[in-house]
Amino acid sequence: MDADVTDSAGKAPAEPAGTGDGADDNDAGTTASRPNRTHHWLRWTALGTSVVVLAAAGAGWWFYKKLDGNIRTDTTAAAELRTYEKERPTPIVLDAKNILLIGSDTRSGEGNGKYGQDDGGSQRSDTTILLHLAADRQSATAVSLPRDLMVDIPSCRKPDGTRSTAQFAQFNWAFQFGGAACTIRTVEKLTGIRVDHHMVIDFTGFKDVVDAVDGVEVCLKEPVDDVQALLRLPAGTQTLDGEQALGFVRARHGIGDGSDTQRMERQQRFLGALFKKVRSNGVLLNPTRLYPVLDAATKSITTDPGLATLPDLYELARSMQSVPTEKVQFMTVPRQPYSADPNRDELVEPDAKNLFERLREDEPVSVSTPSPSPTDTGTETGTERNSPTPTAAPSPSSTPTFEGSNAAASLCE
């Protein structure tokens, strides 16, 4: 009996172990450990994803802060303009925008000294363009104002706190007298158009933007050699880097007849080509190419407080995305040699008045490309200084047409 009991007792604990075979034993172990391993894996995946998201967000924030911090704000101009608010034009079409683009010829600052001697930081507006964005954002018209145009310049506050004397002088003196505020007041007095925003860009900034889009292609039938603009180019099709592009838009003595009119035409066509390239998919849809463009652009400009943040500039750029390329138009205000000095300019009337009125009331204007085009010939056989800019001509749709170009036109047509 003891043996039976012993046998029964010995077998009793062995029975569960033998219940089911080894496979059943393994299945039980797998069932218990699989949820643990899955949970462990999900936890690490979530943690890794969080790290990636946080890193991306951190990088995005860093890029945002860097770009936003690049922008310089001209609070002095804003304060000066507030002082003269009562004399400024009243906006007529509120959704339309007028932006004054000023290219400064200052030799001060890093990289600008080689374009001439710095005479204590003085500067004049080497290029001034009034950019009108239509309220429906279906057109943009950029009007160049000649630096030699004779205009009424108001009394302006100088950098040292003194005031200049109101005088009749060439247009680019306004920027030297009182910076952007004086230039804006001069433009508003001349055109009757309210300037909503302004941007100032210097030589180095322009070069950096061109380099950031890997250059712009131009065509020349004859070589160019302009010592003052630091420009030497062979004849033929070529892609200009930033340094060459700056010389190309500044050159007067080694290309064409040396007139400022032809220089402005060249600038307009180059800016059209640059605008088209920046809007191309190769730049805007490629973050590795877009960031250098944004970095160069934000570092190169000084703006009014209304455009002094990245969201402000983004909104401006976004609003222009809907403008058809052929409706991004460039022209020079109708001008002719000044009667008292053929080396200066004066407006052609009533054409200039009509142009300003159309822009002020947000009415359409159109442009026609001159023939032959300055960049097509490479010899700048366009309008001579001693000839007036062709006047506006009525079109079949009664929209006045001015000599100019648009961003859809190629520099190599």
3D architecture notes:
By secondary structure, the protein is an alpha+beta fold. The chain is 43% helix and 20% strand. It is built from 12 helices and 18 strands. Strands 1, 2, 3, 4, 7, 12, 13, 16, 17 and 18 form a 10-stranded mixed beta sheet that branches. A two-stranded antiparallel ribbon has the order 5-6. The protein is globular and about 95 Å long. The N and C termini lie far apart (116 Å). The N terminus is likely disordered.
Summarize the structure.
By secondary structure, the protein is α+β, with helices and mostly antiparallel strands. The chain contains twelve helices and 18 strands.
Layout of secondary structure:
Layout: H1 2-18, H2 22-70, E1 72-73, H3 75-83, E2 97-104, E3 125-133, E4 140-144, E5 150-153, E6 167-170, H4 173-191, E7 197-201, H5 203-212, E8 216-220, E9 224-226, E10 231-233, E11 236-240, H6 242-250, H7 260-279, H8 281-284, H9 287-300, E12 301-303, H10 310-320, E13 328-332, E14 335-338, E15 341-347, H11 351-360, E16 366-368, H12 374-377, E17 393-394, E18 400-406
Parallel strand pairs: 1-12, 2-7, 4-13, 16-18
Antiparallel strand pairs: 2-3, 3-4, 5-6, 7-12, 8-11, 9-10, 13-18, 14-15, 17-18
Helix pairs in contact: 2-9, 3-4, 5-6, 5-9, 6-7
